[in-house]
Amino acid sequence: MTIKNNILRVLGLTLILFFAAINAIAQQQTIIKHTVAKGETLYAVARMYKVPVDKILEINPSISANQVLSIGQVLNVPDEQSAWSQWKFHTVSQGETVYSLTNLYKLHKGDLVAANPGLESGNLQIGQVVRIPLAPAIVNKAGDVVRADRKPNMRLTNVFSKLANKKRGEPIRVAVMLPFMLKQGGQHSQIGQRMLEYYEGFLLAVDSLKNQGYNFDIHTYDTGGEKNTIDGIIVDKALRDVDVIFGPFYANHIEMAADFANARNIKLVIPFSRKDEQVFDMPHIFQINTPQAYVYAEVYARFCQLFADYNIIFVKTGPQSDSARKAPFISGLKKELRTRGIAYVESGATADLLREKTIAGDDGKNLFVPNSGSVEALRNLIPQLQVLQRDVETKYHVSLFGYPEWQAYTSRFLDSYFELNTYFYSSFFTNNLLPEPRKFTKDYLLTYGHAMHDTYPKYGMLGFDTGYYFLKGLSMYRGQFEQKLDQLKVTEIQTGFDFQRVANWGGFVNKRVFFVHYTPHFELLKMVFDK
User: Fold this and answer.
1) CB 3.0-4.6 Å disulfide test: which of 162, 504, 523, 524 passes with 265?
2) Is the Cβ–Cβ distance between 476 and 469 less than 8 Å?
3) Do β-strands 216-222 and 244-246 pair in parallel, antiparallel, or remain unpaired?
4) Per the confidence metrics, is the pTM higher than 0.85?
């Protein structure tokens, strides 16, 4: 009986200490009781309440990171959002400053800047939207803000300070999270092959930078297929202290990684997807693949700048399916032309070009824009444009404007591109005649024993460019990386970089778009436009 009583006393003391610890934590922060629903995982709950997994584990000692939760199970969740649970949005008027906004809303300047990274009085513009955190403040008798009664959410504080105190020479800690799908036979998966090629190019960038004296500590994770969860990766202790994450690939994985990186002030470089909403609300994200809306806006502006004095002819050609995909681009371009007062005409079909030569003017420059970027469209259109171009009597001046995928058809239509003075827009392009791409292609082949896949873009080059740009920038500028973006100059192999913040509280998107021009003088030009 004595032993049994001792065990009971120890167990009782343990329970007392356990609940005392829970109460102590509860006194410091609000605790939410969450009842687990069907299909919910620990990380899903963490994402729902925007708190790190380890914070939930801390106040739920009876569960483990990889535990399968039961329906109806009750979890304690720290309410880290309670201080800043709501936002108000303010549109800047003439004469307003950061100081006037802090007085208007009874806020510390630091709290306002924390909610809008990069916000300064000097860069406020009329019509700019500023996010106002709603939290009670303590005001003295003079009406000045003394302090808020709660600290702002740390997810929005010191967002870019993680590297600030890292000494030069210390390694940059890097994580790569990609679906190599090795357990699913990744070597036979198209996506797995492309991710491996990206990683191989990335490692060539690491090797090049190490030869320059920079140092890195790299952790690589296979996220598996789209239906996989990355909960087990997120809780890896090694991932908690990295400075930058490259990836993931799938949208559901990006959402998890973004929440994790945002909570820990880790930079997240998204190389592939262009549809991630997180970039608009998380200031640490860098989106490489330019969102389509930004691409179109930039292309329209440069198109009107270059071709305002051309006879512009839109031609219907190519498969119906591809024409439908290009319809938003064509519609937007026509609208922009009308807005700027630039005339254009439309040809009902490619055959009309030969029957109705009045479509094109022989007294000026004629630019033909097909409504399809397919190889079939080029096969139909190019011979007819060549007839117009070679007509010695009328002397038509023909130019052709098209789409990024045209670079994949270069081997088939190279001579025609030159003859027809061809342009196309793109965010990716490689001129294999230049020394840097040629050297990279050779190094890749010698290192890995195989050539890169014939894709657009080439994933090995994308891996090299993104790795080199970010790892060199972080190594050079550390905690001032974002402030030094305009000073970071690298020679890209394929991918151009021009990062701009989408909003004061949002992340960065890559807005680099250029035109590729095949001139009649057999010159290949990559036209990069100044801002």
Assistant:
1) 162
2) no
3) unpaired
4) no
How far, in Å, CA of 8 to CA of 10, rounded? Answer: 5
Q: Is the distance from CB of 458 to CB of 445 less than 8 angstroms?
A: no
Least confident span in 4-18, 69-83, 401-415: 4-18
Interior/surface letters 245-263, b for 16+ CB within 10 angstroms, e for the rest: bbbbbbeebbbbbbbbbbb
Tens digits of per-residue pLDDT, 273-317? 877 677 877 888 999 988 788 889 889 999 999 999 998 999 988
pLDDT digits (tens, 9 = 90+) for 220-240: 999 988 888 888 888 888 888
Distance between CA atoms of residues 346 and 315, nearest Å: 6
484 Cβ contact list (under 8 Å, min separation 6): 473, 476, 477
| CA separation for the pair 178, 394 (Å, rounded) | 56
Structure tokens at 238: 């090694």
Residue written as tokens 């729902």? 48
Confidence at residue 295, expressed as pLDDT on a 0 to 100 scale: 87
| Distant-in-sequence contacts of 113-116, Cβ < 8 A, 24+ apart | 114/152, 114/156, 114/157, 114/158, 114/159, 115/84, 115/87, 115/152, 115/156, 115/505, 116/504, 116/505
Length of the chain counted residue by residue? 531
